[in-house]
């Protein structure tokens, strides 16, 4: 199993557990009619979604970096006036 699949599996597990706990906290807040607990539950749910999306972003970024052609390498040159020029 390559590293992307390991990251995906870890992201799914952590996001799922956080989402489940957020839903449980949210439902407890609704049942007990305690407004701050409802806010904490909603925040936990949003955090779980953001956690999963960040994991997917890291996987997509790693995939793109691995499969992209590197192209021409540019070396910056600093002339006397302080502006940077790019030499090909």
Provide a descriptive summary of the structure in words:
It is a single chain. This protein is mainly alpha-helical and 88 residues long. It has one domain (3-87). Helix content is 72%, strand content 7%. It has helices at residues 3-32, 35-67, and strands spanning 75-77, 85-87. Helix 1 runs antiparallel to helix 2 (35-67). The mean pLDDT is 85.
Write down the overall geometry.
elongated
Strand order, sheet with most strands: 1-2
User: Count of helical segments?
Assistant: 2
| Poorly predicted runs | none
Roughly what is the average pLDDT, rounded to an integer? 85
Work out the number of β strands: 2
Which sequence of SSEs, written as H and E, runs from N to C? HHEE
Structural class: mainly alpha
Helix content: over 70%
Alpha carbon gap, first and last residue:
40 Å
Fraction of residues in β-strands: 5-15%
User: Mind describing the biggest β-sheet?
Assistant: 2 strands, antiparallel
Domain count: the total is 1
Give the radius of gyration: 23 Å
Summarize the structure.
Helices cover 72% and strands 7% of the residues.
Itemize the secondary structure elements and their pairings.
Blueprint: H1 3-32, H2 35-67, E1 75-77, E2 85-87
Antiparallel strand pairs: 1-2
Helix pairs in contact: 1-2
Fill in the keyword field for this structure.
2 strands; two-stranded antiparallel ribbon; elongated; 88 residues; mainly alpha
């Amino acid at each position: 199993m390559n590293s992307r699949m390991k990251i995906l599996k870890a992201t799914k597990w952590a996001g799922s557990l956080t989402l489940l706990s957020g839903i449980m906290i949210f439902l407890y807040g609704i049942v007990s009619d305690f407004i701050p607990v409802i806010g904490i539950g909603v925040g936990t749910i949003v955090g779980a979604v953001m956690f999963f999306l960040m994991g997917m972003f890291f996987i997509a970024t790693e995939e793109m970096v691995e499969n992209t052609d590197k192209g021409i390498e540019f070396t910056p040159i600093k002339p006397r006036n302080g502006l940077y020029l790019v030499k090909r």
